[in-house]
Amino acid sequence: MKLRTRAPNVADQSIIDSVVKGINLGPCGEYISQRKPKTVTKLFEIMQEYCISDRAKRRRLEEKNEQKKSRSSERSHSKPWHADEPR
Predict the structure, then answer these.
(1) Which tens digits make up the pLDDT trace of 13-52?
(2) Is the pLDDT of residue 87 over 60?
(3) CA 15, CA 84: separation in Å to the nearest integer?
(4) SS3 state of residue 58
(5) ∠ at Cα 66 (55, 80), nearest 5°?
(6) Residue 81 resides in a domain
(7) pTM (predicted TM-score)
(8) Buried b (16+ CB within 10 A) or exposed e, 25-51
(9) Cα(38)–Cα(36) distance, rounded to whole angstroms?
(10) Which domain holds residue 18?
């Protein structure tokens, strides 16, 4: 997330207050509401850190789920020693 443009004549505090009111989910929202940054630049730095950590967490969870899927599919295949037994 990069701060690309700024609206002219909009105070930093107005932007920060709007973000605090609008972002209420997750740890980023909690952190920002408890410790309001003084500048928009600092606000975006904090949000960037949370986005990076959230992506990493999501990636780890996806990898873990894939490992679970592969293990469960290995278990669900018939065992070779059962294939010769009559039913």
Answers:
(1) 888 888 888 876 678 888 888 888 889 889 889 888 888 8
(2) no
(3) 71
(4) helix
(5) 170
(6) no
(7) 0.53
(8) eeebbebbeeeebeebeebbebbeebe
(9) 7
(10) 12-68
